[in-house]
Write a structure and sequence with these properties.
The chain has 80 residues and is an all-alpha fold. The protein has one domain. The protein contains three helices and no strands.
Length: 80
């Protein structure tokens, strides 16, 4: 009984820590859209941290990957 409570507490703490760190990194990346910094790198990094625990973040990260692959594919097709 105690073991189950401790495990649930650990999982909740882990989820909270990942959410806090990931949201902070994403927020920093969003701020970098108007401030100097590599927002294009930081935002996906924050989503990757969130994707460890949250399915919605995995979906967003996958959409971001697919979109960037399409853009890179188009730019390679138009390269001289």
């Amino acid at each position: 009984m105690v073991r189950r409570a401790l495990m649930g507490s650990y999982q909740a703490g882990r989820k909270l820590a990942i959410a806090t760190i990931g949201a902070s990194v994403v927020a920093l990346g969003v701020a970098m859209l108007v401030l100097p910094g590599p927002a294009i790198i930081v935002i996906p990094l924050g989503l990757a941290v969130l994707a460890v625990e949250f399915a919605w973040a995995r979906r967003w990260l996958e959409r971001l990957r697919d979109g960037s692959r399409r853009v890179l594919g188009r730019s390679r097709d138009h390269a001289p």
